[in-house]
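thought: fold this chain, then report.
action: predict
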Amino acid sequence: MTGRRIMTADEIRRAVARISHEIVEKQAGTAGLVLVGIQRRGVPLARRLADAIEEHEGVRLPVGALDITFYRDDLSLVAAQPIVKGTELPFDLNGVTVVLVDDVLYTGRTIRAAMDALVDFGRPQAIRLAVLVDRGHRELPIRADHVGKNVPTSREEVVRVHLAEVDEGDDVEIERRTEAPLAVSSIAGALR
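observation:
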């Protein structure tokens, strides 16, 4: 794959700061508000949002982690032995506003699975969505309430978010899938 950087560490930091202000403004404060990161990179993003909100509001929001592995509609396509990362929701979801946090919004299927998982744990008053990157190509009627960056992409491209908590450093890259040419011997073998 070949790629190019579309967000630097500073741009990610500024996007998180802006989203944190938007979340508080839309809620008209921090009362009744919780952040739930979708495993894997949504969790550190949710923690960063909580840090930013604590910095400007002086209140630490509860942060949870949600594993949607068994709620996916494409589970059989993902892996024979899916890796379960774990759900940790150390608070009651009933009657609160949940801000789901994820790194990339694409088809909307991950968010649908996350909402299905959330309602198994309680009945939130509202569910909102915050994402670092919205790349388009929705297959379900889902949109983000808070977006760090809108990035028009083609379906042949892949958006890769790197966060220091999981990867080596912070950045976002967009890569174009390249198909490896088939060797002549492979084609001949397939025709036999």
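thought: worth noting. Residues 100 and 129 are 5 Å apart (CA to CA).
final: tokens above.
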